[in-house]
Design brief:
Pfam families: MaoC_dehydratas. One of its GO terms (biological process) is fatty acid biosynthetic process. One of its GO terms (molecular function) is fatty acid synthase activity. This protein is of the alpha+beta class and about 140 residues long. The chain contains three helices and five strands, in the order βαααββββ. A five-stranded antiparallel β-sheet has the order 1-3-4-5-2, covered by helices on one side. Strand 3 and strand 4 form a beta hairpin. It is elongated and about 55 Å long.
Length: about 140
């Protein structure tokens, strides 16, 4: 992977988007196994309905992991200094997540050249599911 260079990055530059397939029950089951998060709201239809949800839905941390993939597709993980995310909506079955990032600031801190990236995970209808920001060190 060839990470971008600080001098080549400009405020407003966009990271290559990460478009993912629609969330389905298999995705949720695999994430449960990988994460150890077996909360029944994500895998048990009857439990979800008792909680007044129409069906099971994706773990918020699954979408957070997708945002992590967006970042590490742009720079090596060792260059990520901070990630802050807030959950803004439920990712339902059939939603197709797309993760995007935009450079919002360039600065120096702790002897490093860094950029701040605004992060977004939205579904195919443009509805935000997660918003956040990351700080990344560039050379």
């Amino acid at each position: 992977m060839q990470a971008p260079r600080f001098n080549d990055v400009k405020v407003g530059d966009k990271l290559p988007p990460l478009a993912l397939p629609a969330i389905n029950r298999t995705t949720l089951a695999l994430y449960c196994g990988a994460s150890g998060d077996h909360n029944p709201i994500h895998i048990d239809l009857d439990f979800a309905r008792k909680a007044r949800m129409p069906d099971v839905f994706a773990h918020g941390m699954l979408s957070a992991a997708y945002l992590g993939r967006l970042l590490t597709g742009w720079v090596p993980q060792a260059q990520v200094r901070n990630v802050a995310i807030r959950f803004t909506g439920i990712t339902h079955l059939g939603n197709q997540p797309t993760c995007t990032g935009v450079v919002t600031e360039k600065f120096e801190a702790d002897g490093e050249q860094r950029v701040k990236v605004a992060l977004r995970c939205a579904n195919q209808y443009g509805e935000d599911k997660l918003l956040g920001e990351a700080i990344v060190a560039l050379k």
